[in-house]
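Run folding on both entries below.
>entry_1
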Amino acid sequence: MSTAYHAQFEQEKKAVPSAADMKFGIVVSEWNSNITNALLEGAVETLKKYGAQDENIQVKYVPGSFELTFAANLLIEADIVDAVIVLGCVVRGDTPHFDYVCMGVTQGIAQLNANYDIPVIYGLITTNNMQQAEERAGGRLGNKGSECAVTAIKMVDFVWSL
């Protein structure tokens, strides 16, 4: 969501349900760990804020963002979580590598969401520079990891309501 519309979203959003009985998998990229660890901290704090128990939050690490889809798929197939949150950070460089990684992860996560009944929450920060990433990982634009946690809770609640 565009940051420009974030304030409007804050006013329109519905209450976050209890996460007390929900199980979450969080897959975190080790690449750009200064950013991904901050996203992880935001996600875990938010899950706990809404009642998730420590034993119901599994954190798994992968080397880079491209591996997020593979790990999310394994968590889904293990049938041990109600939602998966993927957290990564890709900063644009001088080569097309940025485009390939971002496109691959985006398509992979979309495919998992289309194929399974367990929501996979997209927490891949894609920025032009490290300052933009820092602003989204606990800086002036908030913590996207925290936003992903709220989304995960709401999506599990949605699935359970069907």
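>entry_2
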Amino acid sequence: MAGREAYVLVVDDDPLILGLIAARLEGGGYNVTTASDAWQEVLQAQGLKIGLVVTDINMPGAGTGLDAYKHLRRVFPQLPVIFVSAMPREEIAKQLPPDPKVRVLSKPIDFGLLRAAIKELTGVDRPL
């Protein structure tokens, strides 16, 4: 994630969680854009300069966070993605191929772990 020009795309169908994650990232100095479903996730990632995606997995509507990830991976093979989900990690592991540019965090979100994952994936370390 290079500089302040790149956006962090936060995706969740729960407006409270979406707002909380976006506010914490913005408070840390990140440029943030949001989406509430997988289709919006794909459209925004293709239309903006995105340096990182933080996304839920299970969302209503057209596809899941995993579906959006698979599409985005074909277009942006090096885009870092952090999944934040209440889904058991074992179930996620069954559906997600190994990828060094992906991290999986559990809900409720631990912002210390989110900060560490962002640093691992992007090299950027800002307080959240």
